[in-house]
Amino acid sequence: MTATLPASNPAEVFDRRLVRLRRDRAATTVGQVAPILDEAAERLLDRLDDVTRRFTRALDLGGRGAVAPRLRARGIPFVVSADLSAPMAARAGGLPVAADEEWLPFAPESFDLIVACLSLHWVNDLPGALVQIRRALVPDGLFLAALPGLGTLQSLREALAVAETELRGGLSPRVSPFPELRDAAHLLQRAGFALPVADVETLPLRYRSAAGLFADLRAAGEANAVRARDPRIPPRMLFPRAASLLPAEADGTLAMPLSLVVMTGWAPHESQQKPARPGSAQARLADALGTVERSAGEKTGRG
Prior knowledge:
Rossmann fold, two-stranded antiparallel ribbon, about 30% helix
């Protein structure tokens, strides 16, 4: 069962119905971008190599066929693959489920590992989705996510803005907004995750032409689904003009680095490390440093 927020909700940035339709169509073409999805999944799942616990029930959230097989290859016996698009979920094999990330249909404490690779950037209520993900984890369960970060497709965003302004005298959003690194750990903490960590990895993608970039975005189901987009048919010269404005490297290729904001968080558990209470220290910093402790405002003497 799939549920979405009402269309009149002012917080709705993305058209979730359109996201689903585009992912339905992309289920037959996503293999064209498999190397990119595979590399992103590998970098995200590398975090599991630093974890000693063994996972037995995992949820692959929107991995488009790149995550679930890797989880099973790591010996996880029970893997559910959920996607807003039923055909896309089926690509992962195992146990596919059509599910909306904004309304997860799973009972509390259903999984000990949840992985969301390149899917949560189309969610309207990301804090709410993270709360649901945390509730679906058992205590001390692990959540891993990778989202396109700020700076991804920036040159394309700027080229489209210039081209549309020239051709129409105005512009509409044509590239999805992406989160900043500084917001990621805060979002995890706000959603109730323990030990939140966020960092950035970069996939240095290059294209021989803008046409190749546009084809990959369509094949992956990543075409524009921002509600505020201009519903009119784009001017015929919009994309050719934008392509001519993209900065090329010395060899003529187009650099389009994919900035991955990687998020790691744990469902709270009493066994986890906790910060010490203020004033609970048993030793003075001055003693450890071999210095003399002075009160604030007290002048130091000179020998």
